[in-house]
Amino acid sequence: MPSGHTSAAFSAATVLSERIGNIYASAALYSLAGLTAFQRIYRDQHWFSDTILASALGTVIGLKIVKLNSRESEANPKGASVNFVPVFNHNSMGIGISAAF
Length: 101
Description:
Elements: H1 4-20, H2 23-42, H3 48-75, E1 81-88, E2 93-100
């Protein structure tokens, strides 16, 4: 079972990294996400393979969120938009959708 904490961390790191576009910020964001994966292994909550799968899954989800948001903003230059954002709380995680028009 992939680590939810790790996939959430890598998803957030990917979205922020793509939006910021700075190599140093990206390194810091992915380092924090990697630290999350390390912590899950260190606390004996997940195996190494769980965190590797979760990091790949989180990165793919983050890239897809960025792609969907950029495609929507190009298709709607008048200001109307639909945004997909990762949502995290203590018990669950998911994707939130917001609309502006």
